[in-house]
TrEMBL record:
Residues 200-210 have a biased composition (Low complexity). It comes from Stenotrophomonas chelatiphaga. The lineage of its organism: Bacteria, Pseudomonadati, Pseudomonadota, Gammaproteobacteria, Lysobacterales. InterPro entries: T2SSM_b. This is General secretion pathway protein GspM. Residues 200-252 are annotated as: Disordered.
């Protein structure tokens, strides 16, 4: 007579069946079907998110383009940067600016005159902005010197005076009075607008500002030293006596 299965036997058989099914799933179904499909699902989700971000950027393109044009226009109109597109043109403009300021401070060059203007190369590496520098030397009176420096540093575009050196020389005008003149040298520095020219090209242009460009030729011609004029004393050469003493003044 066959034995009747007890409830315990039924539960044990069910447990064995579930264990076999789980083993089959882990060995055959999960690695060959579940894992690849889950990976594909993750890829689809990532691509959908990327497509959404790209679509948002495409939808914002007109607004971003208009904003970019506004920023570029604001940079072009900003007085802090030099308006010229190249270092050669900027050096020539700085040279003309110095001459105009000196003539404004001393009409007819009676009290102040430019004795030298020399473009300087930009030897900096990995600079954010392209620098245009001019080595300037003046022979001026005290008041004219202050007027020239003030006009250069407070005008537009924004310029900076660095490495300022002054040699104060006293000239005897008569037997009982004396006047003072200054031999002033400094570096006049300005910066081009971002994106006007790369720093490497600016350095090469500053080293040879007269190659193939009319403005650069003007800058080199103006940088040639001229004869030292009479100091800012209001006296003619015939009445001037050689300097009696000199005093070095350095201002940073």
């Amino acid at each position: 007579m066959p034995m009747q299965p007890t409830p315990r036997d039924r539960w044990l058989a069910l447990a064995l069946l579930l264990a076999v099914l789980a083993l089959v799933y882990l060995l055959l179904v999960h690695p060959f079907f579940t894992v690849p499909w889950r990976a594909i699902d993750q890829d689809i989700s990532a691509l959908q998110q990327r497509q959404h971000r790209v679509q948002v950027q495409i939808d914002q393109r007109p607004e971003v383009s208009a904003r970019l044009q506004q920023v570029q226009q604001a940079l072009r109109e900003r007085p802090g940067f030099l308006p010229e597109a190249t270092a050669e043109a900027a050096a020539a403009a700085l040279s003309s600016r110095v001459q105009d300021v000196v003539l404004s401070a001393s009409p007819g060059n009676r009290g102040c005159v430019v004795s030298n203007r020399t473009p300087m190369p930009d030897n900096r590496s990995e600079a954010s902005y392209t620098r245009v520098a001019l080595q300037v030397r003046l022979r001026c009176g005290v008041d004219e010197t202050a007027s020239v420096l003030h006009a250069l540093e407070t005008g537009n575009p924004r310029l900076f005076v660095e490495n300022l050196n002054m040699l104060a020389q006293r000239f005897q005008q008569s037997t009982d009075e004396a006047g003072t003149g200054l031999d002033v040298s400094f570096e006049l520095i300005g910066y081009l607008q971002p994106g006007s020219v790369d720093p490497g090209a600016a350095a090469a242009a500053g080293a040879s500002p007269g190659d193939g460009d009319g403005d650069g030729a003007t800058a080199m011609a103006e940088s040639a030293p001229v004869a030292d004029p009479a100091p800012a004393t209001g006296q003619d050469d015939a009445t001037r006596v050689p300097p009696a003493d000199a005093e070095q003044i350095d201002a940073e």
